[in-house]
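Hey, can you fold this one?
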Amino acid sequence: MDKKALLQMTADIVASHASMNEISQEDLLGEIDKVFGKLSNLSEGAEFATEEVAAEASESSSAAVPLEAAFGADKVFCMVCGKGMKTLKRHLSTAHGLKPGQYRKQYSIPAGTPLVAKNYSEARKKMAQKLNLAERLVKARAARGKKKKK
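Sure. Predicted structure:
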């Protein structure tokens, strides 16, 4: 395979990954080198060393962030990739193809542990209280119940 095709494939792969994940400039450059190197090896017919595959597999099963540090007040860190964000559910689904239950089981996270930053959760709770969302929900359910009885 020619170098131009390899460069195009590398650009497509890295652009796809970068569109779904927040990546620093240094990480982006490293990823470009890594993807290009892998594609070059594959195009030359080189086989992956079993040690390299085993090392990558063990890397993916170990946590990028320790459990104690993963759940902070302002951010929750993904134990798969180490990225910090306010809420993990969507990230786990889109970036890693994991459901919250699978993620909890894989990293031995207790079932009651929220996958949301504490400050973010508190802010949402205060906003809901300010807007009287609980009362409005009760009224809406009561109205819906009356409609069904008629």
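Confidence is low (pLDDT under 50) at residues 46-60. Let me know if you want another pass with a different chain boundary.
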